[in-house]
Amino acid sequence: MKVSIIGAGMGGLSAGIALKRLGYEVKVFEKVEAIRPVGAAISLWPNGVKCLNYLGLAEQVAALGGRMDHMAYVDGASGRTMTRFSLQPLVEQAGQRPYPVARAGLQDMLMRAFGPEDIALGMPLVGVEDGASAVTAVFANGQTVASDVLIGADGTHSVVRGHVLGHQPERRYAGYVNWNGLVEIDTAIAPADQWTTFVGEGKRVSVMPVAGNRFYFFFDVPLPKGQANERATYKAILREHFRGWAAPVQTLIERIDENGTNRVEIHDIEPFDTWTRGRVALLGDAAHSTTPDIGQGGCAAMEDAVVLAIALQTNTLGVEDALRRYAQRRVQRASDLVLRARKRCDVTHGKDPAVTQAWYDELWQEDGSNIIRGIYANVQGNPLD
Fold first, then answer.
1. What domain count does the chain have?
2. Which cofactor does it need (predicted)?
């Protein structure tokens, strides 16, 4: 079977690896000339790690992952710890450690595992043509490629999604801006084995360890969309937004490299249940674009990849039937994750200040069990449980 995958992100490459392992002829087409990861790092929760383990990458992903043994929330103004607890109960429930990983390392690992020789760069997709026995991808350079299956893993701005749905759904602004990047680990900021989040005023500052003695950091600030984005002003802007916050936050701001820091206006897309059209299927952000508030966007894409491969391997009534069965297994699960992330986003970013304050009050009383229960609820139900 010949498979064309549009998009060389985490979901597309994971699907490519899974399908190659089944003996399919797989080619990935990516619109950019050079692949640069979007964002500095990603939280791979146990469900995402299990998917990579399934793809034969257990040792590689463990080497990329930071040692995250604990989790803590800290009052942003005073610097007092609101709650701190071990993540071991989550590990024991889920059967796998979580791994925060740098996106560049993850991207490189996936490209190597898939095979760079089968990735065509500089190939923007402009159209998809359905056929009775094949589907044809049409690229901006005039080239056409016919295949038995076409997978749209082309992200939140997916071209393939427009073909499947017949229209492009609007992206919904979630109400906040995120700055993220990598800095060297410094215990003056936070413990080296801990995911630490400073909270207050509907804002968040968070650090978590990744390989290479580095923290992945992010700053979240509720802001109107469309404001000026000038990299040279990032430190000054963050100093202003976090004026009066505790010393570790100020230290982090001074340590960031503006040239290596990303700024993103956070959006999602209302869940929809049409993921396939004939020999074409959606995967990852193309199918379920989410905010990062529960850390499940990349993990869900990897789940898609596993379920897609299983569906094509085990169903013999034809490609279209197998793709429909893939979608049936994934739509509800992915939609639930999008809506859970949206709900968490509203609580943490002050959409209703009273609700956010109630959450802060709860954190002072939290022993970790409620938070771990929430994280495990996101992990539970994955295809490799």
1. 1
2. FAD
> In 225-367, at which residue ranges do the beta strands (DSSP E only) sit?
262-269, 276-277, 280-282
Q: Is residue 181 assigned to a domain?
A: no
Enumerate residues 6+ apart whose C-beta is below 8 A from 245. Answer: 76, 77, 198, 200, 205
Q: What is the pLDDT of residues 300-326, one digit of tens each?
A: 999 999 999 999 999 999 999 999 999
Does residue 202 belong to any structural domain of this protein? Answer: no
Residues 68/208, Cβ–Cβ less than 8 Å: yes
Q: What pLDDT is stored for residue 38 in this prediction?
A: 67
Convert the pLDDT of each residue in 5-26 to its tens digit: 999 999 999 999 999 999 999 9
Domain region containing 365: 2-171+268-379
pLDDT of residue 385: 86
Q: For residue 320, give the H/E element and its range.
A: helix 319-348
- Alpha carbon distance 236, 257 (integer Å): 12
- Domain presence at residue 384: no
- Number of Cβ within a 10 Å radius of residue 70: 15
Three-state SS sequence of 90-140: HHHHHCCCCEEEEHHHHHHHHHHHHCHHHEECCCCEEEEEECCCCEEEEEC
